[in-house]
Amino acid sequence: MPRKRSSDNGDAAAAEPIAKRRSARQAAAASTKQTEAKAQLEEEKKEESTPAKKRAASGKETKPDKKAERKTSATTNKMDDKTGDKPTQKTKTKKTADDAKETKPSTTSKAKDSVNNGSSSRAVSEDPDVDSIPTMNPDAPRHQGEWYWLMKAEPETRLENGIDVSFSIDDLRAKDKPEGWDGIRAYAARNHMRNMNAGDKAFFYHSNCKEPGIAGIMEIVKEYSEDSNARRPGGPYYDPSSTKDNVRWNLVHVEFRKKFAVPIGLKELRELGKPGGPLENMQMLKQSRLSVSRVSKEEWETLCEIADKKAKDAGLEHQTGKLVKRVASQNLLSDLRQSFSSSSSHLGRCNIISTRGSSQQPPSSPDGAQSISSSDRQVKKNSAVDSV
């Protein structure tokens, strides 16, 4: 039961004992608070001086009681108000924030330095020499005989990050070395390229143009390797998730073999792909957005026969030679023509000058005096030199 106060008659007389009891309680409470605050401060100092490893090993860290924390914080705030200092916890928090602010720029600068120095695994990569890339890749699965494929490219101009990514069968035909089929950013198409073996054949398909269709045939001459364009920032095919240690995208190297005299258009392919047609199950028609697809042997033979028939009906032949040789011969022929025309014009001018000097009389000047020809001046100049 709580202690009750006795009812005295006089207010003044009753006030003194009450005041005494209150002051005693306050003094006791104050002394207790100060003692607890000092003890808590000493414990905090000990914890700060003790290394974290020893504290973790000893396992003697205990959470302070909530009531004790409130009493300690109240007493500490009163003492800080008297001395004019800020609380210790706030000072620690401020230092930690300042340390974090100082740490961030240094981390960023280290990252920039690593990129500038080329030490990052995502550093800009250069295209390796084609001759240094092996024909066979031991990681590529082996299959018997030739497999057939269809690979799409865009012959008309299209910009990616300000770079023209167009590529036609004539561009491939003009290459004097194997061309890397880069820019594949679909996993299904990439997996098809990983399954290719050297010697496989592929249709070159013109896509995203006025007249899409199969334009010719090329051959896979080097099995899959890294597509280094994925690690080239600012390029049309850059992918920041692809690194040197974690290669995500690959390519194969191809060479030109044949350009059809008459391309096989997409409309004709769709007609052949209707139910009951020879291309009913063709993957390119089933998955039209896939840039690299598989072609069965029956489909390959059917399409080659159609291309031969179209060329025969048009009275044309397929083009199998590389475009580089023809371009070089044309350039040589044009150079010869230019040199011949310049030499003939020079000879013509010489003949005209000699004819004028032999047959024509020197014209008379307006004042009646005869003008001296250039040849006469030269003769006089030479005679003057000889006389000297």
What can you tell me about this protein's structure?
With 388 residues, the chain is an alpha+beta fold. Among the domains are: 130-318, Roll (ph1033 like fold); 320-349. Helix content is 48%, strand content 13%. A six-stranded mixed β-sheet has the order 4-7-6-5-1-8, with helices on both faces. Helix 1 packs across helix 3 (66-83). The termini are far apart. Residues 1-20, 53-62, 78-125 and 358-388 have low confidence and may be disordered. This is Thymocyte nuclear protein 1. Its main location: nucleus. Residues 1-142, 341-388 are annotated as: Disordered.
Give the helix/strand layout.
Layout: H1 11-49, H2 52-58, H3 66-83, H4 88-117, E1 148-153, E2 159-160, E3 163-164, H5 169-173, E4 179-180, H6 187-194, E5 201-206, E6 213-226, E7 250-265, H7 266-272, H8 283-286, E8 292-295, H9 297-314, H10 323-359, H11 374-387
Parallel strand pairs: 1-5
Antiparallel strand pairs: 1-8, 2-3, 4-7, 5-6, 6-7
Helix pairs in contact: 1-3
Domain EVE: 148-305
Biased composition (Low complexity): 25-34
Region (Disordered): 1-142, 341-388
Number of strands: 8
Fraction of helical residues = 40-55%
Poorly predicted runs are: 1-20, 53-62, 78-125, 358-388
Q: How does the overall form come out from the CA principal axes?
A: elongated
- Using only CA atoms, what is the Rg? 47 Å
Secondary-structure element pattern, one letter each = HHHHEEEHEHEEEHHEHHH
Q: Give me the side-by-side strand order of the main sheet.
A: 4-7-6-5-1-8
Pairing-aware structural class of the strands and helices?
A: alpha+beta
The largest sheet, given as strand count, sense and whether it forms a barrel, is: 6 strands, mixed
Task: Give the strand content.
Answer: 5-15%
Do you know the CATH topology of the domain at 130-318?
Answer: ph1033 like fold
The N- and C-terminal alpha carbons lie at a distance of 150 Å
CATH architecture of the domain at 130-318: Roll
Mean pLDDT over the residues? 74
Can you tell me the CATH class of the domain at 130-318? Alpha Beta
